[in-house]
Amino acid sequence: MPKTVYLYTVGCQMNVLDSELVASELLAAGYRLVDTPRAADVILLNTCSVRQHAEDKVYSALGRLKHAKQRRRRIIGVLGCMAQKDHQQILRRAPHVDLVVGPGQLGKLHEALETVQNGGGPVVAISAQRAAGSKAEVARSFVPFDVPRRGEVRPVRCQALVRIMFGCDKFCTYCIVPSVRGPEQSRPVAQIEQEVRRLADQGVVEVTLIGQTVNSYHDRSSGGSVRLADLLYRLHDTSGLRRIKFVTNHPNHMDDDLLAAVRDLPKVNPYFHVPAQSGSDRILKLMKRGYSVGQYCEMLQRIRAAVPQAAITSDFIVGFCGETEEDFQQTVELVRRARFKNSFIFKYSPRPGTKAAALWADDVPQSVKLRRNNQLLAVQNAISLEDNQRLVGQVVEVLVEGPSKVARKSSPAGDAPTEIVQLVGRTRCDRIVVFDGSLELAGQILPVVVQRAEAVTLFGALTDNRYSAPVAAAHSLCDPS
Ligand code: SAH
Ligand code: SF4
Ligand code: F3S
Question: Is the distance from the beta carbon of residue 105 to the nearest atom of ligand 1 less than 6 Å?
Answer without folding.
Answer: no
